[in-house]
Amino acid sequence: LIKACMEVIEAIYDAYPVAIDGMVASQVQHFCEDVQAFINNELVYLRQVRDNRLVTIPDENGQLALHRALQNNVRLGSIKLLVLGNLLALLSPDNSGALPLHVACKHHDSTDVIRYLVGDTYTSTLEAVDTD
Questions:
Q1: pTM for this one?
Q2: What's the rounded Cα separation, in Å, for the pair 27 and 80?
Q3: Residue 68 pLDDT > 90, yes or no?
């Protein structure tokens, strides 16, 4: 039952990640440990989006938060949050020339994430210069 409940919560989060914004720590304490851990892990990305510097300033490898999230195989909902926080990240290559789409294809396990990056709203990603 808990596993089925987690799958529902994860699907809702992937479809509408901003919904996590209404949750506060006191409410989270009432969830089972798995749900609490899930929400706490995903809140990290919502906090990053709220601090514009965290999603727009690249690290020493030229990677933005979106690149790192894709490399770390995070959930689709978190990817959506990071894209909403910095649409230009989709067109930003890292120091090796890899766009977020390249990183997703190489590291991410979810084809839904790749479909999202290639989706109609973000087709401009494919038009970016490929420096590979």
A1: 0.72
A2: 24
A3: yes
